[in-house]
Write a structure and sequence with these properties.
Ten copies of one chain form a homodecamer.
Chain A (H helix, E strand, L loop, with lengths): L8 H9 L5 E5 L11 E3 L9 H9 L4 E7 L1 H5 L1 H12 L6 E5 L1 H6 L6 E4 L9 E5 L4
Parallel strand pairs in A: 1-5, 2-5, 3-4
Antiparallel strand pairs in A: 1-6, 3-6
Chain lengths: ~140, ~140, ~140, ~140, ~140, ~140, ~140, ~140, ~140, ~140
């Protein structure tokens, strides 16, 4: 058993493999993931695990520079959006965030290192992590 | 997206493949899983997802006749044991349960159809599901 | 054995993997499926299982927004077309349907998540399912 | 599309590969299939396709000398047993049948060439086919 | 052992998988088969098996609408060409045939479902089968 | 295209890999080949190719010390047995032959380097080749 | 890039997969690793990386209860043995250690979860890690 | 052991698979082989085996119409060039040869059926074989 | 154990496979490596092993003509740059070096034979090796 | 291109992987290699490459403690045996040799790390290398 807070072997390996500027996407259960993009399935049932719980765990282990979310989240899922900002503020790194449209977010998926599919069932609740380095 | 309450593709396939009397094991994060036994990794971080949350989701979809737990759980993890019994009572099937020693439970793992590893961090918190049929 | 009504492991996993707006195609036994498109073979003999029986089973488990059929079906296989509409009306979701030409339907196959090949032997009897989410 | 009445590619290949005295098992949806035994999944939903419909299709293409069923079928599923005998009589070959206990049937599965899992939901409804040759 | 006359497992599976309008190519032993095209090797020694013997066996099992041969065959291998026409006339389906240049035939190979390589050693003796359906 | 008379790539590789005293079995279409034994499928239809035609081609390329046949062949398939002796006499090596029972022949299959399945449909017509070296 | 101090993806995944009482072996470059035991190759050149540098990194991430070393190390490589004890004392867990003969250590390798091969070139310098849990 | 003079299983299979006009390249040990091109490694140490020794062995088994070499060989490796011509003259087929620049030779490698890498250490010593048929 | 100073099996094989003008990249732990580029993971923890230690080991075994580094290294990591030049001067070959921008270096990665990821944590510390031959 | 004298990638990797006391077998072209033993094919044609040429190349890179040969070699292939002793004396290590019967040598093959098959055509000419370390 590892000590770092991230118990999932493939997730640990993914985090260790991520290079500077590469992206890892945390997805709700409905995001259409392209066939060629690697995926890690975490979703068990509706809301389990939630995207933000997974995000907290990942941010404890992965160096992240910036996150991108769909601009639709602020309007359609304002509470989730607020909790996302809280989660980012509690991260060990100072993480900026920006927005693109949900369509642009979906169009960026083929370039992602991997998509982590959670049990999240909140509309538009997907987050692109831009990986960083600590040197 | 499926309607049955079980969002995980490999988990759904496992449940669909399980034959009468075959066993599926829900495991805490520390159970020593033999190299040849198929495993599905669900654990993200300590306690996420909990074994009982995963059990509830699985019982909603898998026909189960009986569960087996380590006899050590009643003494060392009595609260978890009580919540386990609650979870079983809320299942759609009438499920009996019995106990074996933790050592016997570990010795049975090579014969399991698969082990589902959760984020559970309660001592001895593992459950063997004996699969049933509804005809 | 699972409880959801869909007994096939690969089919269960496919349904659990399907994202919003992705397509799954139910095919008669003669549809030319492109080499790179994943396929699930269900057809045993002529008419077994029928496409509509498989469709009923899938609609019980997969959230579907809309279906697309070849416009040729209404003219060349009117009885099958009528039974298809009945099947859609008995689905748990409200499902709209539209039509494209058979040639356009064939041209869309490389983008499908998978093609499910049934034993159907009715001319033009193929259905594109546009997957939805329930949140 | 092939002309022989058996539309399923893996099933066609299995039939073509079967040697004299080797066994192929047709199973209901609940038979516990050993991990190392090849399996072909045909079951879509409860009863679809039925074992006897699949048997008819297979007997049209595979040379079979003899079938073995569980002795429990005659008592617990007498109607199914009667329909099985009808199906065997309509086969192109003269096929004898014998009985073993359900436990003995399950114990023989590791030696089978493959198990074909149908949607059958009748208790004890499994059939061992002993393959023959026509020369 | 199967009853349909086609004893080869991969060939049986190929025939069962072929969709309407897809092509299967029967080749002499020297046709340059592109690296990405699936191939089934049947050729044992010069002339064994001959392409026309394989064609007869395949036509007994595969529904074929039309065949295409190189226009060079009529001039350079007239006897083989005549025997090909005989073979087509004895097929269960009514099969039309047309001609393209040998270069066009070679250029079409990347789009074929598979190439079946025989032991044929007659110049230009290759046949494209255009698969049909019987409904 | 190779010059040695053996056109089949896997067969050529098998012959090149065979060590002194290892066995390669030429089989009729009904021999029950164990699951773990490598097999090369050559059989197309009943009698095509015949075992003896394949044997002639193989003997032209493989150094063989001795062959073993089922003792049943002499009684049940005397004509085939006579033609087998002719074929052996025309081989480039001096090849001795001996007999074992058909049951012993089947029991030896798990130790074979590979089984080559032909289209032969003569009862008991199987031949074990004991590979040699020419130095 | 991950934050936990262990940069190697397969090593991170191995640590995350290790169950209570399972063993991971850190090996010098000459240990005879059995063919069936998973191995992670880290050794680049003589002494790079050293086993103790790798051990420090692993102990920062893996929960370890106990280590086992060959009893030969104290006599033949006393300085390395002393540095090993130092390394263990600086680990976050309290780790006990015991000794077995080098032959017994080699005999235990088939049961290890994995062997991590370093660039160590000190005689008998191998360490068995007995994995623990922190709950 | 085979009789044809070519002892290498993959090489034998490659020769048996080669179609008319396809190319096989014999390479010195330094030729930059593209990642996607199949390769057979024969080189053991400097000069072992030499390209011309391998060429002699291959020409004894593969039907070759023509070879292409880099025009640089005549000037930079004239002795090797002369020995190449000798080798070609001793081949069973009448083989023509032509020249292209070394850069053009390297640019043609992605289209080759395979590259056979020898131990040759003579500058520019690479040969493209254009495969033929003997019918 | 090998004698050449390079103990890592995949690294040894990579060096043996490298052709003239092909590139191998030594990378710090944060370089974004494209998904399709082969990678060898050597990094254990921050600085272990360092890129220059790995470079020394590789230069002892691989023939290198030239290296390319990011022009940013001279300004942002001047000490590392100086040590790199020292390392190159101690190599058995005379190795020239040139510079490109870090962006151009990243853009060249898809064409590399492989990327070797070290534990280096110095900004911009990546080196492209242009492979040579010694004949 | 590597500098160590061993140009073959798989051979280089094998040498780098070999642990103390593990065995690598150099074989003539006729040794019956068990199906489960890894093999590296080097033999091109009769005598090319010879076993002793390969042995010289391997001894230049692999640390070897001892070799074992068949006792039959001294009597049946005395010249080869003498040249073997010469080759061993020119090796960088001091290598002892012992003898076992050819049957015992063949019986030891399943335990070998790998068998390297050369083009050697001298009777009984096989050598077991017992790998060593240089620390």
């Amino acid at each position: 058993m590892n000590r770092s807070g991230l118990l999932h072997p493939e997730l640990s390996a993914l985090v260790a493999r991520a290079g500077h500027t590469q992206t890892i996407v945390l997805a709700d259960t409905g995001l259409p993931i392209p066939a060629g993009t690697p995926r890690i399935e975490l979703g068990v049932s509706a809301g389990l695990p939630s995207l933000l719980d997974v995000l907290s765990a990942v941010l404890g282990e992965l160096v992240v520079e910036r996150v991108t979310v769909a601009s639709e989240t602020r309007q359609h899922s304002p509470q989730w959006h607020a909790r996302l900002l809280d989660t980012l503020q509690q991260a060990p790194d100072r993480i900026t965030h920006d927005e693109i449209t949900h369509d642009a977010l979906k169009a960026s998926l083929p370039g992602a290192l991997a998509v982590i599919r959670t049990g999240e069932v909140t509309p538009y609740a997907n987050v692109i992590l831009h990986c960083g380095v600590n040197f």
